[in-house]
Amino acid sequence: MADAKFVEKVDEEPGLPGKEANLDPTPEYMPRYPGSGRLKDKVAIITGADSGIGRAVAILFAREGAKVAISYLSEDEDAKKTARLVEDEGSEALLFAGDLGHKDLCERIVAETVAKWGRLDVLVNDAGEQHPDKNITDITPEQLQRTFQTNIFAQFYMVQAARPHLKKGAAIINTTSVTMYKGSPGLLDYSATKGAITAFTRSLSGNLVEDGIRVNAVAPGPIWTPLNPAGGSPPEKMEHFGESVPMGRPGQPNEVAPAYLFLACADSSYMTGQVLHPNGGSVVNG
CA angle, 13 as apex, 11 and 16 as ends, to 5°? Predict the structure, then answer.
C-alpha cells in the first residue's frame, strides 16, 4: 500500500543520524555482566539499533539469548558492526535499512523477521530524530511532520505490523525521553513527540493487557550517542553535554540498555504502562 503523505528527510542537520564510529570518546555499548539466559530462544526487533542506545540493547539482548532484527535509517557501517557484535555473542542478526516513516517498510521488517525465525517476542521502538530550534517560528511544516513521522507514527506502524504475531508474554518497549517530563525549550517538536509516545505507551498497555502483552517505556536523560553531536543539539551545548544532571555527566548506552532488558523479560512480569528513568538523577513525575 502507498504511504499517506510521507515526508522526505529534512536537510537542516545533514549529519543526522550520525556515525557512531566518528564519536570521540567512543560510546560504551558492551554489556557489563555475563548473560543469564533471560531472553533465551526469544526474537526481538529493535529500531534505531545501528548505534547508540539501540546498539547497546541489541548486544545485551543477544547476550541474554535473543535473536535480533536491527532496523536503521542509512548508517550501513554502524549497522553492520552491530550485527557482528550480536553474532559475537553467539546469536543471529537481521539488518533492515530504510525510513520507518514508510508503513510498508515496517510491515516488511516484521514479515521477514517472522519468516526467518518463526516468532516475535519483543518489539523495541527506539528510532528517533530531533532538530533544535530556538524559536517555534523556525520549525518548518516539513520538520514538524518529519519529527512526528519518525518518532511516533513509526511506532504505530511497527506495532500494527507486529500485533498479529505477538502472543501472551510478549513485550513492547518504547523510547520516550526526559524531555517529556521536564520540557526542552529548544526541542519543541521533539518533546511533543515524546509526550505522545508516553501517552501511546500508557494507552496501548491498557489495550493489550487482557491478551498478556506488556507495554512499557524508557525515558533516557542525556546519553552519549551520535544523535546530539551529529546535529541534534547546537554545537555550543555539546561542550557541557550532560553536566546539568545531578550525576554531572552524560550516561553511556550500556547504562541504559539494562532498563530495556528488564522490561523485555519475565523479571518485569507485573509491570505494564510504566516508564523507567535512566537520566543521571533528575527527579521527574511519573
Answer: 100
Q: Which residues contact 181 (CB under 8 A, 6 or more apart)?
A: 219, 284, 285, 286
CATH T-level assignment (fold) for domain 36-276 = Rossmann fold (3.40.50)
Q: Which three cell numbers stand for residue 131?
A: 532538530
Separate counts of helices (H) and strands (E) for the chain: 9, 7
Half-sphere exposure at residue 163, Cβ-oriented, CA atoms within 13 angstroms:
13
pLDDT of residue 235: 58
160-203 pLDDT, tens digit per residue, is: 999 999 999 999 999 999 999 999 999 999 999 999 999 999 99
The string of pLDDT tens digits covering residues 224-249 is: 887 655 444 555 665 667 788 999 99
Q: What is the pLDDT of residues 123-166, one digit of tens each?
A: 999 999 999 999 999 999 999 999 999 999 999 999 999 999 99
What is the value of pTM for the model shown? 0.91
190 is catalytic: yes
Active-site hit among 33, 190, 260, 270: 190
Cα(224)–Cα(234) distance, rounded to whole angstroms? 15
- CA–CA dist 140, 11 (Å, integer): 12
Among candidates 221, 227, 213, which has minimal Cα distance to 263? 213
